[in-house]
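The records we work with from here on pair a chain with its fold. Taken together, the tokens spell out the fold as the letters spell out the chain. To see the layout at work, look at the sequence and tokens printed below.
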Amino acid sequence: MFRNFTIAAFLLLLWAPFHLPAQSTYSTDFEDGSKSSYTSGTETLNGISWTLSQALIGDSPPSIDDGFVFDRYNGSKALRIRYRSSGEQGVVSMNADVPGIARISFKYARFGTDASPVLRVEYSTNSGGSWIQAGSDITTAGVTTLTEWSHDLNITGNVRIRIRAISGTNSRRANIDDLAFTIPGPPAPTSVTVDATAFIEGAYNGTGLNTTLNANIPTGQPYSINGHSAGETAGSIPAGAVDWVLVELREATSAAAALKSTKVGSAAGFLMDDGSIKATDGTGNLTISLTGNTGSEFFVVVYHRNHLAIMSANPVAEGAGGTYDIDFTTLSATTYQTTSALTTLSTGKFAMPAGDADGDGDVDASDLTTWRAQNGGTFTYNSTNGDFNLDGVINAVDRNEFQQKNKSKTSKVPTT
């Protein structure tokens, strides 16, 4: 990612650290450097500014005529640093912080046939005000092939590094090449805010969703799916609420791998007449507490008590507004398994399919049996889930226009 690291990208790291990926890598092979004198000066290497004191970018190849003076490198250049017993010291130092370093590594060797210096790596967490040694000192004497040194810093706040030549014979030199460090991303979130939109087929009226059941909706959410036990309650049912729904987040490497066991959080809220899913006040977005997640991108699952559940086709990341945004109604590709998981509405929008009276993920004969037992009876919320169009009446419309139309359809949300 950082191979073509730019100044703009580096500033982005400083200004927006909480939008970093889980882990990034900065590296420099010194091929873009050109500093040719030991006098202190700055050099931008793969987008980061460094100060090189008693150090330069070396490109001297082995020579038959002068076999004692040459750099050791991969490619055509390497950093060359020298020890001075007095005066300006050999130091290579970053000029700005990065938002954490997990691991640092580079390769080192003696320069030519020099009695090479001892090197020390240090880091600062106060913008260079003070420095702390990282790992053991590095003896370069006798090292004739580039040899890797690495150390786990595991610093999560602002940090910068430097390399010093701390001892040895005066004016003796060493080479450094292929310097790299990993930059950790932000810690995994403990809660997220989800701004989701979905339609349920049964309540769709051509523009939005009917609210016929609003007066029958209980103040306590009805779901215990996949271990949900938060027990959300509303002080009153918001105007415009269609029904309770459950939103679940899963963390997995792919949609197919987003099994029930990958759940990291869930929350119940109200499906509103415009398809938005809101918190128990009917206005705010859902906040979902997370447990066990290692990252910050999640597959979004939506459940309804007598419609087939759906899941996002891809993991959703935090948007610029600080929310996790997803709209299942406009593009079928947003939903895992696309149209096979959805009902295509007359307006070209998409909805969760109706007809799953028992909530087992299939529209089948058992749902028809449930409808038959409830047909013509008195509607009772969550006890008579054969009311597929959510009008408070269980009749032939529920059977013919929903259960029969969708028979043999199954939820595509991964289970086991």
Residues 330 and 348 are 8 Å apart (CA to CA).
